[in-house]
Write a structure and sequence with these properties.
Layout: H1 3-7, H2 24-32, E1 38-43, H3 46-60, E2 67-68, H4 73-78, H5 81-95, E3 99-104, H6 106-110, H7 115-124, E4 136-139, H8 148-163, E5 173-176, H9 182-194, E6 199-202, H10 227-231, E7 238-241, H11 252-260, E8 264-265, H12 273-287, H13 293-313, E9 317-321, H14 324-337, E10 340-345, H15 353-360, E11 369-371, H16 376-386, E12 390-393, H17 398-404, E13 408-410, H18 428-450
Parallel strand pairs: 1-2, 1-3, 3-4, 5-6, 5-7, 7-8, 9-10, 9-12, 10-11, 12-13
Helix pairs in contact: 2-8, 8-11, 13-18, 14-15
The protein binds iron/sulfur cluster (SF4).
Length: about 450
């Protein structure tokens, strides 16, 4: 490196080019899709609803309806009170939802829409425009200061803040899921059932976004966390909310602890062996039962397969990108596999990613480059110099992988250039097994493709 290069100032920021994150109300739409009978209205511009629908449909391959209060020029100048009122009446008439979630878009937030006041006025009317409204939950989701993961977490908090009701303490526990796949949610429910632990999983879009074929069109897909169960989150015995990068003080479990005395348990996101052990340890404490044998056996098979696969994985170099909690979980898994995460990148700006990575990979963290507020243009510049063997992240990394000629293991959301995004497992021993197999096979395939002679016996 020349002296001039060593002292060169970083290039001035020009613009974000393909941000390594998604829009905040998208996270709200995803969380609300996991509430039984819910319908979402985006308060703001119509294009935001179109973009979010397109992303969710291409990933889940299911119909997704998202209403919009559809700002015009006049609503942008004079406010969207009338649009919201008309939107609420239309959605109630058309869908007869059990609950309506309202998430704001950048435009509504920028002009300072006071949705809380609008709702206060509407509720005092009982039946605006002659239509009795269902319960309504409002969440502020300005995308210019957040990510889809933050919108998701803010919606869980809004749901309990605005719907939970005091009452006699029950036997159930609240389980606040992360941005998991429908397959992850189904597996988590299976684990909770095996511990015989009555639980409210919030949200639960395992059926609404990954359902069977229908005999006739359903305006609102069946499934989701029942509204009554959301109300009873304030009567639970405990809450489990996975820790990671999210701001605990802004979390649903923190609010329930502060306002209703529900003790929170915060194991790490259960990706990889060690993090999953923490979840099972928490479930043992809460249920008073040992881990059921079939899960112990599953763990044993996983460890055996990691020993088998170690020779293919040791010292391989990986770039991990995407939503901060998922990146952290994957780094933990990679270190267990013997893979070196050389670069972790996210579009989030929590400021907590470095610390989270240090907590899951204390020995490797110093050698890992961690970049937040990243876009894919910057990621390409950074990753190219690091000579990675593979990339791990969502489909937005496809062009990066193509240009670097490095294979991409697709995880998380969105996956819109493959089928099966909804069926990918990430969590638990089973999820770690599937991820490890996919990572090993991807590397083996890359070696075979690059070999002049080819080899087939491994
Ligand atoms: S304007 Fe804001 S809310 Fe709308 S799609 Fe863009 S980032 Fe999302």
């Amino acid at each position: 490196m020349t002296a001039a290069a060593a002292t060169a100032a970083p290039a001035p920021f020009v613009a974000t080019r393909n941000a390594c994150k998604l829009c905040t109300p998208l996270g709200a739409c995803l969380a609300l899709a996991g509430i039984e009978g819910a319908r979402t209205i985006l308060h703001g511009s119509q294009g935001c609803a179109t973009y979010i629908r397109r992303y969710m449909i291409s990933h889940f391959k299911e119909p997704v309806d998202i209403a919009s209060s559809n700002f015009s020029e006049s609503a942008t100048i004079f406010g969207g009170r009338d649009n919201l009122r008309a939107g609420l009446a239309n959605v109630t008439r058309q869908y007869q939802p059990g609950v309506i979630g309202i998430a704001t878009t950048c435009l509504a937030e920028t002009i300072g829409e006071d949705v809380r006041m609008y709702l206060h006025e509407l509720r005092s009317e009982q039946a605006p425009d002659g239509v009795p409204l269902p319960p309504i939950v409002h969440v502020a989701t300005p995308s210019y200061c957040g990510t889809h993961a933050e919108g998701f977490a803010a919606t869980l908090r809004a749901l309990v803040e605005q719907l939970a009701e005091s009452g006699p303490r029950g036997e159930h526990v609240n389980v606040f899921a992360g941005m998991f796949s429908p397959a992850d949610l189904r597996y988590l429910k299976e684990i909770l059932a095996d511990f015989q632990l009555p639980a409210t999983l919030l949200p639960d879009y395992s059926d609404t976004l990954d359902g069977p074929t229908w005999d006739e069109y359903q305006l609102i897909p069946r499934g989701g966390t029942p509204l009554e169960a959301v109300r009873r989150t304030a009567q639970a015995r405990a809450s489990i909310e996975f820790s990671g990068v999210r701001n605990i003080e802004a979390s649903a479990s923190h609010w329930l602890c502060e306002h209703h005395g529900i003790p929170p348990f915060r194991p790490p996101l259960p990706i990889g062996v060690s993090a999953t052990d923490s979840l099972f340890g928490t479930l043992e404490v809460l249920s008073g039962r040992d881990t059921p044998e079939r899960h112990t056996a599953e763990r044993g098979r996983l460890i055996d397969s990691l020993v088998d696969g170690h020779k293919y994985l040791f010292d391989r170099r990986a770039v991990v990108f995407g939503e901060e909690d998922l990146v952290t979980g994957i780094v933990g898994l990679l270190c267990e596999l013997g893979v070196r995460p050389v670069l972790c990148a996210t579009g989030g700006e929590s400021g907590r990613l470095r610390a989270a990575i240090e907590s899951v990979a204390p020995q490797q963290a110093a050698a890992i480059q961690v970049h937040q507020a990243t876009d894919f243009a910057e990621l390409e510049e950074l990753a190219g110099d690091l000579r990675p063997d593979l990339l791990i992240g969502n489909s937005k990394g496809y062009w990066l992988a193509r240009r670097l000629k490095v294979p991409l293991v697709r995880i998380g959301f969105p996956i819109h250039d493959r089928v099966g995004g909804a069926r990918l497992l990430h969590v638990g021993y089973r999820g770690a097994q599937q991820l490890a197999d996919r990572i090993i096979n991807t590397l083996l395939e890359a070696v075979q493709e690059a070999s002049d002679e080819g080899y087939a016996y491994l």
